Sequence to fold (537 residues):
Amino acid sequence: MNLKFLWVATIAFLLFSCHQNASHNHTGEAEHDHEHGVVAEEEHDHEHESATEDDHAHETTVAENEHEHEKIQYTVYSEDFELFAEADAMITGEHANILAHFTFLSNFKPLESGKITAKLIVNGKTTSQTLNEPLRKGIYSFTLEPATAGEGTLHFNIETEGKNVEVVVSNVDVFANDEELHNHDHGAEPSTVNATVFTKEQSWKIDFATAMPQEQAFGTAIKTVAKIEPARGEEEIIAAKASGLVLFSNNNLVEGKKVDNGENLFSISSSEMAENNIGVQLVEAKSNYETDKANYERKSELVKDRLVSEQELLSAKNTYETSKAVYENLSKNFNTSGQMVRSKMSGFVKQIFVSNGQYVAAGQPLLSITKNNKLLLTAQVQQRYLSVLPSVISANITNTNNKKTYTLDELNGRILSYGKSATDNSYLFPVSIEIGNHAGFAPGTFVEVFLKTITNSKAITVPNSALLEEQGIYYVFVQVTPEMFEKREVKIGGTDGLQTEVVSGLSADKRVVTQGAMQVKLAQSTGALDPHAGHVH
Fold:
């Protein structure tokens, strides 16, 4: 009985346990399914939101890209100005800013004042704006709204210092919309390899210039040295006309002093000398002159009454004229104190050969005076250049003091001659050049001379100031834009003191820095800069 009851109780417990497990499993699955559904919905909603945000961000970027475009640069050179402008892309109906830099080509300094009108002409339609003054020195900021699409021209009418000048930019593209702008081929970007940024604001602050290389006849240039001497007829040496003691007329008579024609310089006194006393000679000459004059006048009256013969009158006349000439010569150059030494031309005292109180003999040099208006250069040329000396047509002359080089035309000079034989002991051939002394050259000093020969061959040349040298390698800075310059190695040939031949590395259509190249080099050492740095947009 007890066993049967235990068996029934066990079966009942097992049945109850199975029912509870089934209920639990159903509830767990439902909860799991519910949680999965919630997570799935959240992930789906998140993905949807993310996709929406990405789409929105993409649309925003596209919209921004459609309205933010690279600046377009224009560079134009007129007779008077350099124009460098950075402008927004021109789109019909949209405002475009033009930041224009105006530089005088005469000195490469900014246009500081003046009224400028910018006119955009496209298919006969004009859009313009006038500015009465710059945004700041050299910089004008224009805003134009193109009325029609197409290729046009941009005109800048400049009114300054009483002059009207026009600078024209050709081939200005105006687009109908952003899509047309985006599809337009803007050409290759300028290379920035080995390039240096040097802004207009920087170049305006220094001595700066750019220029195109010259393609010109460039023959052999003979480099030599020449001694400066006064030109023939430009110097005079004054000598003593009698023996005596030299007395300066004033204590300011020194070398370099300016003197006028006829000015008293010295007196030579012989009053205390027993022999060759010029004072005694002058008194004696005056006495003889007055006696002979009276005798001649007396016989001139007696000959009328035939009291003296014609021969006696002629002899008296000759004696009178001789004594007159002696007296006038002495009285002209001497007085009772001695000889008065006067300057015979206006100029400068070059050299004084005597000292105050010194005894001098007749004919002894006292001093030299030079006009210094014209100078004679005597250059010495080696024998190997003898064959080209007949073709020497001009010269460039360098002042060794200030290192400035002048052309022969600037000095109103000319080639006088060249030697046909070598000078004694030097085995060199002289070349004589006459120049006007407009550059402060001093006689007795030396200058560097480049003798230029005529030729039919042409070469590309640049000013010497455009060349920089590093360890025997020469290079120039080639202009990419007026604010970017590329350092370029070149091979050079001969030089005439002003220009140097470029054998390779540079073409005639590449503008180079001719002044301020060293400052551009220093800017390169500071590293790359933003080309728009310092600009106001």
The chain has four domains: 72-187, 194-219+455-537, 222-231+372-449, 247-357.
